[in-house]
Amino acid sequence: MKNLKWKALCIVMCLCFAVFTAYAQKNINAYNYGNEEVFPIADGLASDDEGVYVNAAQLPNGKVVSVGYLSNDVLVSVFDPQTQTATRITLPEVISSGEAHSVIPLADNSYMIFGLGGNEVTKGLAAKIDSAGNVEVLAAPASQELKRVNYVYGDVLNDGSVIVAGIGTFTNDKKQPVVVKFNTDGTSQLLNLPELVMDGGHFSDVCALADGSFIAVGQRDSNSIPLIVKFSADGQGKVIPTPAEITNGEFMKLTKDANGNVVAVGEGRINEEAQQIAVKIKPDESVSVFEKPSNVTNYERVYFYHVMAQDDGSFLASGTAEINGVETGVVVRLSDEGSLLLNPQMDLSNGLFYATKALPDGTVVSVGTAYNSISGLSEPCVIQFDTNGNGKRIAMSAEIGMLVDVIALADGSFMVFGMSGNTQTWEIIPAVSRFTLIAHTVNFQTFDGSQVASQTLYDEGFVTIPNEPTKEGYIFEGWYTDEQCTIAYDFNSPVKSSFTLYAKWEEKLEIPSNPGNENPKDGNTTNKTPNKASEIQASVKAGDSTNKNVFFIAAVGSLMSIILLRARKRLNK
Fold first, then answer.
1. Is the residue at 525 inside a domain?
2. CA 124 – CA 98 distance, rounded (Å)
3. Is the model more confident about 508 or about 6?
4. End position of a domain, from candidates 507, 531, 549
């Protein structure tokens, strides 16, 4: 009896394992939409060096620069998507230790890096690197009170100078927000702040405007008051008041649209409730608050890490939120008409998104981290959202880690940056991968009709119904999957391979009107001028000789009816 119970238990365990394996395999295969190319370890790095890439930018020549940190050292690498190579930049010893937070590309293929590091002379990590890899350490602002600067993000002004936001440490260890301007001649200056900016605050991001002014956002002081400061072209700053309903928080990132509107996002409280902090700053300096998404309930404790502008005037904010009490990765479309939560179509519990970028086809890619309920690990997460806001996850080889930034390339592929590892060594190393989404081609065969352009679609995408083709003497009847035109194509079916669709045609038959009418009253026959030939659409498939006799049969039937009618009249006389 014991052996029987043991066998039964073994069978149940095997079944459970099989179900578990099938479920895990299903989850893996369910999002295999892209081909991943893992970039090799950059020259100058060892395979066991632990670190992370935190920011990336593409240069005009197509190369991509990413920065971060490696243990206690600054990490700067240049990636060439064409040759699939990577090179680490060697930095002067004075700025080699620390953390790089951001990279700003310049028009001549040089770039500037900023972060935390340097010494008492440099006061922070700031350097300009040319296309050949030569490094110029940038001078610190000439201020006796400023001791150290932790640079965060920056932007380029119209005159080519660069502004960088961050937090400065002054005499007596006083900390407050700072904006430093790096001029094209290599000098730098600390910009004046309004008196309202107090000790304990910081700037998180800065955005240049078309008129030479710029906006910096962050936190005003240690009391967690959100901060918006607009600087004029000559560097004078003034505080733009935040709406009264924002009672607490900080702004983390901002961006601008083509109309000069600036959107800032972060975390905080709306009317004392933990809610999303997202505002639009208009050119007239008025500030409005975006409403929370209308398509979700129990949505709170929102923290946005990134925001991007879209061509339609809306914005996409990425981060994390509690939905029904569960921390979840979110991407929200912000609009004056209302906000909507995008649908990732998967469970993103205990996950978050750090960045979102647009691809050339109008879709967007969000990157971050997601919790794998099967393995119990946090793994890198890549999701592509279509224009309707529906997402699909793209498989990545790394078992553990997170992604912090993404760069969209002109050919439709994209690169992701962050850190990753595996369950064998548990080492977390800087990670860069390039994804080329699996594409399929759909061709259209019109059989001598007007041409219809082929469509290239990503895996699981949908064919767009093309304009109807034309063919002289025929009526278009639809698209079919086979050359004999027996199986109509369902445009609601996801595309999983390349194929051809075939046009089905109906032949037009032109029938002349009755050539004349007989007048039975006077016995005379009057020939009437025939009307213009009338068109009828017979259900005749092109090339079907059997059905071409439809008109002949109909004509014979009409003639027989006339004969019978006359015979009946004669009998009745």
1. yes
2. 9
3. 508
4. 507
**Pairing of the two strands 364-372 and 237-239:** unpaired
Say whether pLDDT at 63 is over 60: yes
Per the structure block, which two tokens stand in for 414? Answer: 């994209």
Residue length of the chain? 573
Domain count, the chain: 2
Q: What is the pLDDT of residues 391-420, one digit of tens each?
A: 888 888 888 999 999 999 998 899 999 998
Residues 6+ apart with CB under 8 A from 12: none
Burial of 520 (0-12, 13-18, 19+ CB in 10 A): exposed
**Pairwise CA distance, residues 403 & 432, whole Å:** 9
CA-based end-to-end distance of the chain: 105
Q: pLDDT tens-digit profile of 120-160?
A: 888 999 999 999 999 999 988 888 789 999 999 999 999 99
Does residue 110 carry a pLDDT above 60?
Answer: yes
CA-CA distance, 15 to 9, in Å (whole number)?
A: 10
Cβ 367 vs Cβ 329: under 8 Å: no
From 289, 389, 408, 402, select the one nearest 330 (Cα to Cα).
389
pLDDT tops 80 at residue 353? yes
Please tell me the distance from the alpha carbon of residue 79 to that of residue 413, in angstroms, as a whole number: 14
Give 321's contacts (C-beta < 8 A, 6+ positions apart).
Answer: 276, 299, 300, 301, 302, 303, 327, 328, 330
Give the per-residue pLDDT at 50.
84
Calpha distance 364→331 (Å, rounded): 10
| 58, two tokens | 């593409």
Q: What does the block give as tokens for 273?
A: 């409730």
Residues 455 and 496 in one domain: yes
Is 94 in a helix, a strand, or coil?
helix
**CA gap 493, 499 in Å, rounded:** 13
Cβ partners under 8 Å of residue 427, min gap 6 = 48, 50, 421
Range of the domain at 495: 440-507
CA angle 529, 530, 535 (to 5 degrees): 160
Q: Which of 507, 526, 547 is the last residue of a domain?
A: 507
Confidence at residue 535, expressed as pLDDT on a 0 to 100 scale: 37
Is 344 among the domain residues?
no
Q: If you search the block for the tokens 């600054």, which residue do you land on?
A: 74
Query: Nearest to residue 178, comparing CAs of 128, 249, 114, 243?
Result: 114
Residue 421 makes CB contacts below 8 A (sequence gap 6+) with 398, 399, 400, 401, 427, 428, 429
